[in-house]
Design goal:
mainly alpha, two-stranded antiparallel sheet
C-alpha cells in the first residue's frame, strides 16, 4: 500500500493532467467555433453581395472542385441552409464548452481541496 503522501501526490498529478486536458479541449472548441463563425460570415457576405440580383439571374455555385449553373433563388436557399447549419453547430459547441467549463471548475476545486488537506496534514505533523 502506498503511503498517504505518495497517494496524495499521485492524485494531485492525475487531477492536474485531467485539468490540462480539459483546458485543451476548451481551447479546441473555441477554435472550432471561430472557424464556424468565419464560415457563417462568409455565407452572409455572399448572400448580401447577391441580394441585388434578380431571381431569374443564372449564377454559378461552387460544389467541391466544380461549379454548377443555378439560379439565384436556389443559391440563396442553399446559403441560408448553410447559415442555419452553422448556427446549430455553434450552439452545440457552446453547450460543450459550458459543460467543460463546469468540469474544469470542479477539477480546480478538487485540486484546492487536495492542497488544503495536504497543508492540514503537514501542519498537524509539525
Amino acid at each position: 500500500m502506498l503511503p498517504p503522501s505518495a497517494f496524495s501526490l499521485q492524485a494531485f498529478t492525475e487531477m492536474q493532467i485531467t485539468k490540462m486536458e480539459t483546458t485543451k479541449k476548451i481551447n479546441m472548441i473555441d477554435m472550432k467555433c471561430d472557424m464556424v463563425k468565419t464560415s457563417k460570415h462568409k455565407y452572409q457576405l455572399t448572400e448580401k453581395g447577391t441580394s441585388n440580383l434578380t431571381d431569374d439571374t443564372r449564377v454559378y455555385q461552387s460544389v467541391g472542385r466544380m461549379f454548377l449553373l443555378t439560379d439565384v433563388k436556389n443559391m440563396r436557399d442553399d446559403l441560408r441552409g448553410k447559415q442555419d447549419k452553422c448556427d446549430k453547430t455553434i450552439e452545440v459547441l457552446e453547450q460543450k464548452k459550458q459543460f467543460l467549463a463546469k468540469s474544469l471548475k470542479e477539477q480546480e476545486d478538487g485540486l484546492r481541496e487536495l492542497v488544503q488537506q495536504r497543508k492540514g496534514v503537514d501542519t498537524a505533523t509539525k
